[in-house]
Amino acid sequence: MIRTRCSTFARRLPDALFGLLVPVWFALTSGASLAAEPVYKYEDRGMVTYQDRAPSSAEDNGHSILNNQGVVLQQVLSRQERRAERKRERDAELSRIRDRALLATFTTEEDLLRTRDDRIGMIDGLISRLDDRIRILAERLAVVDKRVQMQEKSMGAGKAQETLYGEQRSIQRNIENAWSLIDSKASERSDLSGKFDGDLERYRELKADRG
């Protein structure tokens, strides 16, 4: 490994001057057998290090590959930077796939708007039906509540028929479930509307680029 003496120089000399000394240093210390071998430059605990092999993957915070003249042949990113780069590449590829699908699915802007309105209309219709169901259940609950009150008035609190209490609890659960479903569908509607807004904006950009 080629390291200590070169690292000491790195702390004392400017990069430009040190770069001029690198070929001389390798010529004096490495020998002719290493003349064609690549050299790896990286930082280790704040010190510039040169050696004849790449740093281990666990310690690699990015390094440069140099020739025996000190010229940088390749710049290797750190593990974190490589992960970020791979994520950017995946995101870019997914974006290209979405663009192709958008253009393949909708021939015109009107097609996209019609599809949006149909999808949102289906959700609005379901919400409307749930509202009707809640109204019907609420009316039924009012009838049951009144019967429970009448029996409790004559027989005492909690003394009404158990079947009435059971029906009362069942209707209340059904109302709660309907409201929960309405909330879920309202959130779905909002997400869908936002998605189509984004698709429409992107569709217009893609069409403009092709136009």
Q: On the 0-100 scale, what is the average pLDDT?
A: 81
Structural class: alpha+beta
Give the strand order of the largest sheet, numbering strands 1, 2, ... along the chain.
2-1-3-4
- Overall domain count: 3
Task: Please report the number of helical segments.
Answer: 5
Q: What's the Cα radius of gyration?
A: 36 Å
Q: Based on CA inertia axes, which overall geometry fits?
A: elongated
Number of strands: 4
| Topology as a string of helices (H) and strands (E) | HHEEEEHHH
- Sheet-strand content, in percent, reads 5-15%
In whole angstroms, how far apart are the ends? 60 Å
Low-confidence stretches: 1-14, 30-35
The percent range for helix content is 55-70%
Sketch the major β-sheet. 4 strands, antiparallel
